[in-house]
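Hi R.,

As promised, here are both runs. First protein below:
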Amino acid sequence: MVWQIRSRARTVMSRMAVLSSSSIYGDSFHCSPFSGLTNSFVGFSRNWANPNATQWSKNMESHLRLLPSVKRNQISRLKASSCSLGLAQELTSYKVENMGKTDGDQDLFAEMKQRFLSFKKHKYLEDLEHFQALAEAQYPKFMVIACADSRVCPSNILGFQPGEAFMIRNVANLVPPLEHGPSETNAALEFAVNTLEVENILVIGHSTCGGIQALMSMQDDVDSSFLEKWVINGKSAKLRAKAEAAHSSFDQQCRHCEKESINRSLLNLLTYPWIRERVRKELLSIHGGYYDFLNCSFEKWTLDLKGSSIEGGRYSFKDQAFWY
């Protein structure tokens, strides 16, 4: 009788190691609430009773721990003491899934896949010559600096097509001055201006900017977090907004700073000699833009170099326009 039990235990282990169905949750099996499933697995009756069943379960758990890690992760640690052999009978009705991803994640990527395939069919393949040319080189007319905010996508708002804009997005669409040292933003600027020779730099801010709210809420000289260390680049815009809108509400001060920080970034662009020189030679134009998604309007302006001063923090505009 003992050798029969051992033989059947080995059969169970062998089948479970290659089992393509499981109900794994976390690091253990859960007994299924269903009762109308087959009980023909390895020939055991659902109500089969044996005084050695508890010891058999412990032996099973001990053997499972010796399996290779991949199989052990699929099977987890079998809690046969609570589920008994009825678990093995019901496992055959479950399909092995990648438990590292939730159904929601899979749905999101399934939708993303359809968007990609739609892009390929309706844009890429219909304009194949253009995209093949882009694979060889890019000649964008614009360098766009926009906020990382998920609600503000320049390509979606302004209709930039592949190859039209070299783009970088950061918190609060800030351009740090040259003296603040290297950053991802000025590295992208250097490549766009000196290598790609873009003709326009467009800094786009927006309403209800969380980065500007963080800047306006900061205590003086406090920069303990990564966010604070970054938005401190807009400190001069904050000081000016606080001074000019001193009697306004916090929200109104933030809105003032949202636009002021754009203008300050335009001046900061001029601290880079290779940008200032191209602007002076009229090979490059610097623009500001403000997107208000509360009423879906866009404001655009161009920095006038003649009336602007880096040292004095003065700026002058031309070609200002409102799109609404």
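And here is the second one, sequence first, then its structure tokens:
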Amino acid sequence: MAADMRAIQPESLYKLHLECEERPDGRKLDAARATVVTRGGITTADGSAFCRSGHTSVLCGIKAEVCTPATDAPPDRGWVVPNLELPALCHHRFRPGPPSEAAQTASAQLLQLLDASGALDRTQLCIEAGQAVWVLYCDLICLSHDCNVLDVALLALSAALTDLRLPSAEWDATEERLRVKPAERTPLKLGPLPLAATLAVFDKETLVLDPAGDEEMLCEASVTVAWAGDSMVLLDKTGGCELSLEAMDRCIALSKKRSLELKKLLDCCTQSGEVEKDE
């Protein structure tokens, strides 16, 4: 009977779950999915991490390359280029070919969040002002997609940045050449890393933290809030449903609580390499 109702009237079945304040997968409305973060693992990358939350998983690898400073930027600043790929293998809604609009939007948001958070002072990427800087190519690939890919990708990117080690490099002004020592590597000094939480909205007031794919399809709107320490760096709402000030305040409070959980998870991962958090 439940399977038939799920196929014929999924909205009605889901509302029955909401009335009981328990979701189809057994989680409470304010509970996130089990989350796993692992640093390292890609031996060819200068920094890497893997993150899985429920059935959404993202792998991030960072490759550092030397280039000349951009002509339209200060000569002592390097670049960061995040790129999220959503291949056809991660979900049936994606097709082979050029990057989808969803992938391009998420990649732009990742860069925006890094800049807004102040997590990375780009002067650290300067080798010699006006001559050579590092560019960090942050390649992220979604291995499986079950909603909230931005939250998972941002966590994977933040973890990969903590794993990043740059080779020692110095500019030889006499010979006008760069000398790199790949065996000597140093980590970056990072500020508060951005972490995001998404909530689905039902009936304009009911909030569901970390929605799965089925919940995303049924919800009236979704709200993503990103934090860097105590600073809110993103508040993004999609969907036509209007939210009351009280509902928005609860969104902010729940996302803040979730960001603290993710920060604790990231801190433990930095110390031990891998942590799994069951919600």
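A quick note on the second one: Residues 147 and 217 are 9 Å apart (CA to CA). Let me know what you think.

Best,
J.
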